[in-house]
Amino acid sequence: MHHISKPKKKKASAIANSNIALIKYWGKRDDELHLPYNNSISVTLSGLFTHTTVDFNKEYSQDVLILNGKRIKPDNDKYKYIAKFLNSLRKSFPQKLSGLKIKIVSKNNFPTGAGLASSASGFAALTAACNEALGLGLDKRQLSILARRGSGSAARSIFGGFVEWHKGSNQDGSDSYASQIADKNYWPEFKIIICTTNTKEKEIKSRAGMRTTIKTCPFYSGWLKTIKHDIEIARQAITEKDFSSLGQIAETNCLKLHALMITTYPPIIYWNESTISLIRSILNWRKEGLECYFTIDAGPQVKILCRNSDTATIIKKLKDMTFIKNIKLSQPGSGVKISNFHLF
Ligand code: PMV
Question: What is the set of domains in the chain, with CATH numbers?
Answer without folding.
Answer: 10-187+333-339 (3.30.230.10), 194-330 (3.30.70.890)
